[in-house]
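Assemble and predict.
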Amino acid sequence: MSEPRKLYVKSFGCQMNVYDSRRMADTLAPQGYVEIAAADDADLVILNTCHIREKAAEKVYSELGRVRRLKEAAAADGRRVIVAVAGCVAQAEGEEIIRRAPAVDLVFGPQSYHRLPELLARAARAGKAVDTEFPIDDKFDHLAAPTWEATRARGVCAFVTVQEGCDRFCTFCVVPYTRGAEMSRPAAKIIAEIEHLAAAGVREITLIGQNVNAYHGAGPDGRPWSLARLLHRVAEIDRIARLRYTTSHPGDMGDELIAAHRDLPALMPQLHLPVQSGSDRILAAMNRRHTRADYLDIVRRLRAARSDLALTSDFIVGFPGETESDFAATLDLVEQVGFAGAFSFKYSPRPGTPGAEMADQVDEAAKAERLQRLQAAIDRASAAFNRRCLHRTLDVLFERAGRHGGQLVGRSPYLQPVQVAAPAALIGEIVPVTISEIASNSLFGTLAANAARDMARHVERPFVGAGA
Ligand code: 5AD
Ligand code: SF4
């Protein structure tokens, strides 16, 4: 048998890139590629890139500098390393990447992963290959499924792409250009993928998509299914105990989906619902197509369905034309909603998007100053949310060994990481934990009395799930 070839994939950006990277590794496994954790002695290096903000793209070019040195060192030893750039930077920049970083052999966009074996062969023959087409065939039909071993090694929580691309065209956002038009996968394929994951020990599924709540894939009956319908069906899959979905647009938060937060016990009480700004003027300029009042009304209806819902969000500061009073409206919204957490970013003009062409770009110093104030407000809200969990007993799904011996890390229903002294046999189990301490956004807890009582039973059982 020939030596396995070593593959190193590095993901930048969102969870969909992490998912895509795994599917690339799965597609290359039948070609004899084995995934390794460091680039040093890789035969193939894939950087799966993100283009959402300027810094994300810059990181790729600085990483390419490191990869070039690695490639040169390998060449001195008589070994060829193939360097590929995938993902949204590849889609947006195409051949420009090879011009700027000649060490790169292969550039391909998010819709071409399934053609990887063919692209690699082309790069081997011709030296370089670029593929940034949006093919009409469905890449998911061609992507190899992960092996049972690969699925097990990836742990007890899994992401599954159900929807990709976006038709909303927010004026700051590059996604509709890099990921293309919105596309929903057929429900039957998603269900089959999750059944496979469940059989390998996965307990928690996060359905992902750039605008996931716009999901409208064909159901087994041929008619479109909503995300709510899909969630109800996935909840029926044996051993799948927890469901989440991300990322949602407020405009697609329909009644049926809100009701699922009330009716579906497996659907965790946590939702990432980006609002971007608290100012109606800026929301309109961003083409978000909802107002501040609309957002607050959705939050009210969600909390009526599920009172303990942990809401998180994304914010952009310094969008063109944002004044101090627009920004004050954003701070006020943060106070009003009481987010469990949020990501906040300085507006970064993306070439080709309408925002980049707008007059009244906000200067960097004002953006930096607003970002700092916003982050402080978010930190206060998130600390308050965490404090409310102190001394409560929460169900924790244990995911992996902690940093210290005898410690496990898991997640609460609200997605907070929780560290607990517990035996490795509990990985993959959902166990009540009493939260005893909070330090720098991490929760610490002890197994609740009834969990400790049941432990003997768990410890007897062979471990199902991630390797610990
Ligand atoms: N500048 C800054 N932040 C952006 N985001 C998307 N595009 C930009 C941009 N051009 C943020 C939004 C989005 C998150 C994924 O990234 O807040 O919700
Ligand atoms: Fe980008 Fe989300 Fe707006 Fe779509 S809905 S354009 S992904 S910010």
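Residues 52-53, 172-173, 274, 276, 314, 316, 345, 347-348, 350 surround 5'-deoxyadenosine (ligand 1) (CB under 6 Å).
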